[in-house]
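Worked example (supplementary).
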Amino acid sequence: MDDARRSFLLNTGKFIVLTGAASLAWEYVVQGAPADAPNYTATDHWWGMLIDIDKCIGCGNCVRACKAENDVLNEPGAFRTWVERYQVDPDDPEHPVVDSPNGGYDGFPPPARAIEGAKVFFVPKMCNHCAHSPCVQVCPVGATFESPDGVVLVDKTRCLGCRYCVQACPYGCRYIDPRTHTVDKCSLCYHRITKGLTTACCEACPTGARQLFDLKNPKDPVHEFLRTHRVHVLKPQLATGAKAFYNGLDGAVR
Amino acid sequence: MANRFGHYTHIVRMAGLFAAGLIVFLFIRWALIPADFGVYGFYRAGALDDARARPASYVGESTCLDCHGQIGDERQGSKHAQVHCEACHGPLARHASGDFEVKPRALNPRTLCLTCHTAMPGKPKDFPQIDPADHGGDGACTECHKPHHPTID
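After joint prediction of all chains, the assembly is encoded as:
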């Protein structure tokens, strides 16, 4: 088939087949040309994540998807999101036994230290995208910041690798990438959510335990959910303005 | 020359030193701080575009269904209706952008299905779970269950 005909068919096919918002964004998503993407006004959004503990089955799909999407090093300690397994002895709720073999990347084998009669549940963890982030406050060079749409991002061209933010994060969400010696963390798939897609972890979660939400979007179903469910954040006493909302959060979770 | 400023010579020297220091400081500051730093806050405004520039590897279910709509119809009302395509088939952005050399990965039902459906404490009670040792023998799950509509009629 000659080139002109081939490209004509390809383009026409794409034009007919790809419809809706996804096709609008799609070319730009693949090419990584943000300047040309359809308009996105950061101040019209306020992103966060709803995590439903009752739905999490500990399959580790989110961990694998995150690493694939964001080129996260596949070694222990390098996680943008990970899953923890809590075993809580009903008679001793203050001392839960927590394990997270390889961050849940390979799923969960039976617990190495099983507690008789304990309640067991999985807790997916990630950056809480705090509105008043401790990590942002300690960065000396402005390499990490809260974006106008409520996402805590890292500017790798400015990061010195001083690790202040790694210590400041109360949720342990940051690590140093040994390849670049700069800090890395969940970006809430900023390259996806600004183009109308959901995050990679939400895309891969088979049970819908994770849901991206936009608090500034009045049509987002999260508003109804937050009104009718008992939802909490991690470590509320720190007043970080965390935006990872947990439904069914057990008090034993740290 | 030395007496042009009379008794104020020492002050003029100090002032000259300060001025030179200030110029050096301003030059270093100008050289190190990007022009778009501080537009929105204490960070580089261009960092937002940098974060957006990353290409995606997961394309999203709606794009899959644009071409593979019949699979979506098959899943209607099934227990897997809410499971997104790429949760099992893997990231397929390159496939969806026209590079059909990139195919969905081959799926081994015995490992893939059991990733979710192996019985384990901690999974929700109403989530379908099996003990692989006494369910289905050594056969592939797909011999009985259709992956896109797993309930056996």
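Two points are worth noting when inspecting this output. Chain A has a mean pLDDT of 89. Chain A touches chain B through 68 residues (CB under 8 Å).
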